[in-house]
Structures are given as structure tokens and as C-alpha cells.
Design the sequence.
């Protein structure tokens, strides 16, 4: 197991020569993804399918927003926070964005230190990433509570404008929040495996990089949600 | 970016390293860039830009951020082309879906206006 895993990594194959190399890899009658561990290839394929799920939600959101004849609520005002006597537009969402980007940064560092075989630093960085993820989910819970309890936004209507605002908001951010929550559990699981020394025994830190792929994807989806739902 | 290229595939060879091993500085730079780009896209809303200026700036910052995350943080720029194509080409069909649904929603909007009038 460890043997086959370590033979997959290491130095890249011969230098890439444009698109012909892709054709050669795919038609080589062997594994198409050379030098890519199976876990990483499967995570990429899972993320590809997840891309389509989120794209369907966002396209559905576009469709209802374009087709409604009622004015769409202004997200800038709906998501404003009241700070120091004035309404700062989108403040909460901006904080959440910076938290998620910071978590992506610490995750990238964790992968890097994993490949340096630095067990403790990898664990700490993954744990910090999970903490960022938890604070993101916490802020989202706060945001949902504010919207549902204080402002009366429901999936079937809201006081600001088009009724579709609520349903798309809860669907898209809810599904993303679910991904973040699952990611936090996943990260903690892998982090404690690292701390236990599993990676040092198996001879590689690939599981950290694979967990990192998932976490960066969650951040990536947020980039699109932030642009299309909150800013548009 | 040129810095990353120089330390990319050619540098990953030493026997005791494995997988995606890159100098740590690149992650800090990209991290900083993502912060700046997020701040800029927030400013688009804060400064209340409207219309095409707003939409094009949002798209620009969004695509830059997405590209940086996929290319550097997810190590896509150091993968082989076979994987890059397998992951990045299929989502392009989504553009067809978006185009179809945009046409459809225009038609829906038009029928709503025609048959129900404003505000339904």
C-alpha cells in the first residue's frame, strides 16, 4: 500500500509538451492521471460533480431573478450591519469572506508543512483552519437568525421585494454552509490522524493535500456566491 | 507568477520531497493578493458603482480570485494537462445552460408582463 502510494508521487514525468501530452496520457492504455494518487483524482472528480450542483443552484437563482417582475431586494441593504450609529453595507458578508480566505491560506500552509513532514505544525495549521471554518458557520447562523427572526425573511416571501429572494438565499447559502460544516469535521478527522502519526507511518502526507482540495473548493464556491448573490 | 514557474515542476525532483512541494513564499503572496481582491470587490459595493461598471468589476475580481485559488492553492498549474483538461473543460458546458436559462427567463418575464401586468 505504502509502496504503491509512494511510487505514484515524486518527480513529474517528462516535461509537458502542450495538448499532445494530454492526448498521450489519455490514450496510453494505462492510468490517464499519471503521478496523481487515486485519492486525489477521485477528490477532483467529486469536486467537478459538486461544481455542477452549485452551478445548477446559481443558474436557477439567475433564472428566477431575471424572470421576476417584482424588484429584487437590495442585498447591500439587506445584509448591512448597524455599527457605531450607521449602517455599513454588507459588513457581515465581508467579514465572512475574509475569514474563509484566511482559512484557505492556513490550509495551503498546512499542505506545505505536511510535505515537509512537519507533523505538529501541520496539525496546528489544520486545526486553525477548522477553527476559521467554525467561526464562518457561526457567523452564518447569526446571519440566518437575523434574517429569519428580526426581518421576517421566509423561503416563500420577504418584506423587501421579490419572494424568490428567500428561497434562493436559503438554498444556496444553506448548501454552502453544509459544505463548510462537513469540511470542518473532515479537517478535524484528518488533523487528528496526522497528529497520531498516520502519515509518518504510511510514508506520505497526501491525505492532507486531498483535504486541502476540498477546503479550497469550499472557498472557491464562496467566491462565486459572494459575487453573484451578495454583490450583483 | 514567474517566481512560481521557476520553482514549479523542475524543482520538485529531489528524492525526499514528494507530491506538491513549493516554496512557502508563494502561498503568502497569493494569500495577500486574495485579500486585496476581496477588499476591492467589497469596495465595488461600498462605493455604490452601478450598471455595467459594477458588473464587469465584480466579474473581473471574481474570476481573478477563482483562478488564483484553483491554480496556486489547489496546485492546478503544476498538474499534468490530462488532469487539467479533465477538470476544467467539462464545466464550460455550463455556459450553454446559462445561455438557455437566460433566454427562457426573458421569455417568462415577457409573458408575465403581458398577461399579469406589472407587479405579479
Sequence:
Amino acid at each position: 500500500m505504502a509502496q504503491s502510494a509512494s511510487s505514484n508521487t515524486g518527480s513529474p514525468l517528462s516535461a509537458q509538451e502542450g495538448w499532445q501530452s494530454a492526448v498521450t496520457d489519455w490514450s496510453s492504455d494505462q492510468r490517464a492521471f499519471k503521478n496523481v494518487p487515486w485519492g486525489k483524482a477521485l477528490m477532483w472528480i467529486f469536486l467537478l460533480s459538486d461544481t455542477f450542483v452549485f452551478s445548477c443552484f446559481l443558474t436557477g437563482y439567475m433564472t428566477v431573478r431575471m424572470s421576476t417582475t417584482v424588484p429584487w431586494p437590495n442585498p447591500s441593504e439587506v445584509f448591512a450591519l448597524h455599527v457605531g450609529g450607521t449602517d455599513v453595507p454588507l459588513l457581515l458578508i465581508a467579514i465572512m469572506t475574509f475569514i474563509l480566505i484566511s482559512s484557505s491560506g492556513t490550509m495551503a500552509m498546512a499542505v506545505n508543512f505536511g510535505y515537509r513532514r512537519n507533523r505538529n505544525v501541520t496539525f496546528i495549521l489544520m486545526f486553525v483552519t477548522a477553527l476559521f471554518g467554525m467561526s464562518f458557520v457561526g457567523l452564518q447562523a447569526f446571519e440566518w437568525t437575523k434574517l429569519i427572526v428580526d426581518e421576517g425573511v421566509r423561503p416563500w416571501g420577504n418584506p423587501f421585494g421579490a419572494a424568490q429572494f428567500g428561497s434562493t438565499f436559503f438554498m444556496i447559502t444553506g448548501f454552502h454552509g453544509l459544505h463548510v460544516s462537513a469540511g470542518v469535521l473532515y479537517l478535524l478527522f484528518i488533523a487528528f490522524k496526522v497528529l497520531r502519526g498516520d502519515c509518518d507511518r504510511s510514508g506520505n502526507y497526501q491525505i492532507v493535500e486531498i483535504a486541502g482540495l476540498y477546503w479550497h473548493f469550499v472557498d472557491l464556491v464562496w467566491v462565486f456566491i459572494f459575487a453573484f448573490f451578495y454583490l450583483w | 507568477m514567474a517566481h512560481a514557474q521557476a520553482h514549479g515542476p523542475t524543482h520538485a525532483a529531489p528524492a525526499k520531497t514528494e507530491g506538491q512541494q513549493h516554496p512557502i513564499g508563494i502561498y503568502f503572496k497569493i494569500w495577500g493578493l486574495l485579500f486585496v481582491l476581496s477588499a476591492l470587490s467589497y469596495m465595488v459595493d461600498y462605493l455604490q458603482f452601478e450598471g455595467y461598471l459594477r458588473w464587469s468589476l465584480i466579474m473581473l475580481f471574481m474570476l481573478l480570485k477563482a483562478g488564483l485559488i484553483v491554480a496556486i492553492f489547489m496546485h492546478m498549474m503544476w498538474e499534468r494537462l490530462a488532469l487539467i483538461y479533465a477538470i476544467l473543460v467539462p464545466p464550460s458546458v455550463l455556459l450553454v445552460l446559462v445561455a438557455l436559462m437566460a433566454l427562457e427567463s426573458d421569455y417568462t418575464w415577457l409573458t408575465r408582463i403581458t398577461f399579469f401586468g406589472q407587479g405579479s
Remarks:
- The first strand of chain A starts at residue 81 and ends at 83.
